[in-house]
Amino acid sequence: MNNFIVPKRGDKTTPLVLYLFGPGRANEHRDQRVIAADGTLGIADGTELDINDPGDRAEIMALAAQMDAHRKAMGVQMPGGHVWHCAISLPPGEKLTDAQWAEAARTAISAMGFDDSSGRAPCRWLAVYHGPSLKGNEHIHLAVNLVREDGTFATIWRDRKTMSRVCAELERRFGLSVVHGRAGAGMPGLSRAEIERAAREGAAEPDRIRLARIVRGCAAAARTEADFVQRLRRAGVMVRPRYAPGGQTRVVGYSVALREPAGAPGRSGTRVWLGGGRLARDLTLTRLREHWKTSPQLEAEAVAEWSRRRGSQMPRSAAYRANSWEQAAAVVNRVRRELAAVPPDAGAVWAGAAREAAGVLAVWSMRLEVHRPGPLAAAADALARSAQTPIGAPRACRTGRLRDMRGVAMVASAADAGAGERMLMRQLIRLIETIADMHQARGQARQAAALAAAARTELARVQMYRAEPITAGPPPFTSPRPDRGIGR
């Protein structure tokens, strides 16, 4: 769920009300009706009004006049304008009933302090439903007169943050798709500066996206915390521990940066360091440690590894036999069958499944898609978003067969090439489709569509690899080690 607050407040109520019940600038307004309104206006929820009908137009004009009658009667002028206008929309494919939209509108009005629940005189407000926009977004508009019934002014300080929190709450309440990047969603959004920097440097993606995927892949395949740090360094990532106060005896956090030296071709002069929590909420060190073995000895080894200098020699993981791919495929198949009995509302289990599958594809992408992110990276990122849980909800858990997914990640990172690679890919596609079906059952159409596209479009491209060389054109992504390409 998204919201857009018109940056500049208005000083005329009637033109806005006429716009809300009119055809729009490109005849995009459809099914206009009152979804909810302040009781002072005396109009029922669900009232349909057509500005082209003479009788309805008169009622619309009367409604607009009533919205502003108290302010005019008191002769009050609010500096900067007294009309606050906000649109609340859903992603394409998602819907709410009129009752749910009315609940959403009243929740927003209360959170903004526009009703009498704030302990102050209420504002006059109106919520109008518009149906799908040209891009397919079902939405409503909120129009609020910021002059309260007693002539005082309502404050809109931090209105964008407040409405963002409201949308996050409504996503949880109604089981909607979580907007990426919103506070509490788990996946911090990209800033404009990050996007512009990537474009300026000609990077395939911003550092934050690449680092999150590398960290996720290394964490998925690591047996211990020390192993995790080693894998990060071998993947071309610089690591920096954050110690608890009192000395370098306990690591409580970390930050990472790409190893490419500042000033190198295509890189700016500043290296970007990002903490685990800024990559994703499930990539903080505290959350990662929930899935690793631990003991006093392993903790000491981890502290030593965090403190190790970059140039130190580190052992590489042993390679797995080619037939390990078939064993890994069998594990994924068992996980998928186990999930078939899990109800859609068991969020922690499904988030855990998405997290483990994302780790497998992330580590596989690190191995094959070194120069540019490809279909494996796209699928891993889509699953990572599904793995996020809202604040206050149970965390992603690793139960049952999900505990065996680390072995699958280890195979994807180090097994010798074999025909079983294609078998594992087919099972991963089926697992992603199962997770997509869960989102569909929960009414989260956008997340379901994203995962279905990852499975049936992105990963289907990987299946183009065959035993014989491809002569119909370049592969869909660049692999620096063609001897380990899928199916080779």
Write up this protein.
The strands form 2 sheets. A 5-stranded antiparallel beta sheet has the order 1-3-5-4-2, with helices on both faces. It has a 3-stranded antiparallel beta sheet with strand order 6-7-8. It has 488 residues and is of the alpha+beta class. The model is unreliable at 311-315 and 465-488 (pLDDT under 50). Helices cover 44% and strands 10% of the residues. The protein has helices at 13-21, 54-74, 98-111, 159-174, 192-201, 207-221, 225-234, 276-279, 285-289, 296-307, 324-339, 347-368, 375-386, 405-414, 420-441, 445-462, and strands at residues 2-5, 33-37, 83-89, 124-132, 138-145, 237-243, 251-258, 274-275. The chain folds into 3 domains: 2-174, 2-Layer Sandwich (BirA Bifunctional Protein, domain 2), CATH 3.30.930; 188-317, no CATH class; 318-488. The protein starts with a strand and ends in a 26-residue tail after the last helix. Helix 6 packs across helix 12 (347-368).
